[in-house]
Amino acid sequence: MRKGILLFVLSAGLAVSAYLQEAQVKFSNYQEMRAAVGKLYQEKKYQEAADILEKALSQFPDRVKANTYNLALMQSYLGNFEKAAKSLLYAIDKGIWFGKYDFQPAVWAPLRESDAFKAFQARNEAMRQEALKSAKPELLVVTPEGYTPDKKYPLFLALHGGGENIAVFKENWKSEKMKKEFIVAYPQSSLLIGMDSFNWTEDLEISKKEIADAYRNVVGKYAVDTQQVIIGGFSSGGVAGLEALLNEVVPAEGFIVLCPAKPESFINEKVKKAREKGVSGTLLTTEMDDRVDQQKAMDEIMKAEGMPHQFFITPNVGHWYPDDLGRRIDEAVEFIRNNRKK
User: Fold this and answer.
1) Upper half-sphere CA count for residue 179 (Cβ side, 13 Å)
2) What is the SS3 assignment for 190?
3) If you average pLDDT over every residue of the chain, what do you get?
4) Residues 250/231, Cβ–Cβ less than 8 Å
């Protein structure tokens, strides 16, 4: 999951003067540099952008991954495939490797065909496979304000999106009710796809086991009201959450999911069974998400089986978190509570 092709080069508001194009200046911070590169990229001034990024490798040593990725992209646009591969190998030599899906976008197709890239890819894959050997699930539990073990609290199992981790997800998936009322469990998948990114849908059987383990861990250590469990998440986390709910891996009364693909288990028979158990939920998506048709199909199945649910499409947003997500989550919590089986 990524908001754009350039890693972290999202802003283009900085004017780019001649002295910047000559790449002789030291930028005061990384954000200033990425804004300059973003503007040059939009203007298709790939050589100028490459010149800046090449200088940035030494100025911003903590941003080697993003800078080498973007530098290789500029060099690929220029047809300098050997240089592009060497830029990526620079990162490899620094102990940095790239994710499983980082070079899948069509823009990388010409570079992928080069022998130089294939040599890089072999070393990158070896590093990825080595990292997989030590990958393991993690769990962060956040208790509500004023938590005391003397009373029971509702639980929210919140699952990060594909290509994310707990730290990234936690900053986006939050709300007032979660903060004040819920024990919130943030599991992190063991299914590593990048140096610091994970994806639940690489192997759903493993994911379901890890979600079940996380649930048992939280219930065993915290004062959870097991009759008030909500599961949800973003993208692949939404898929995994629905799979866990529909296959009764977790005894959740409701779901709140954003931009998921349609899970294999999301079939009439299982939705009907969940509805009979009192499950309800909210399906959120965005207008420019490339899975809207799948989400509309899920909406139709829930309608056909009489499952209480809400379906919202946020306009003018791609596959990402809408600005009002916190409010949407809180409204979805109330919807589940109002539809609780008596």
Assistant:
1) 9
2) coil
3) 92
4) yes
pLDDT digits (tens, 9 = 90+) for 270-320: 999 999 999 999 999 999 999 999 999 999 999 999 999 999 999 999 999
CB within 8 Å of 334: residues ≥ 6 apart: none
In the chain, where the domains are located: 18-99+108-132, 138-338
Centre a 10 Å sphere on the Cβ of residue 239 and count the other Cβ atoms it contains. 29
Q: Please list, in sequence order, all residues whose beta carbon lies within 8 angstroms of the beta carbon of residue 210, skipping any fewer than 6 positions away.
A: 137, 187, 189, 190
Q: Which residues pair with 194 in a beta bridge?
A: 197
What distance in Å separates the CA atoms of residue 134 and residue 113, rounded to the nearest whole number?
A: 31
Looking at the domain covering 138-338, what would its CATH class be? alpha beta
Measured distance CA(255)–CA(268) in Å, rounded: 17
Residue 197: what are its φ and ψ, rounded to 5°? -140, 145
Average the pLDDT over 255-265 and give the result: 98
* Residue 227 tokens, joined: 């009759």
The pLDDT assigned to 228 comes to 98
d(CA 188, CA 161): 10
β 280-286/197-198 pair status? unpaired
Q: What is the pLDDT of residues 197-241, one digit of tens each?
A: 999 999 999 999 999 999 999 999 999 999 999 999 999 999 999
Going from the C-alpha of 176 to that of each of 144, 201, 301, 327, 332, the distances in angstroms are 10, 29, 31, 8, 12
18-99+108-132 adopts what CATH topology?
1.25.40
**298: Cα separation from own chain's centroid:** 21
Beta strands in the chain (DSSP E): 138-142, 153-159, 183-188, 192-194, 197-198, 224-234, 254-258, 280-286, 309-314
115 residue type, one letter: D
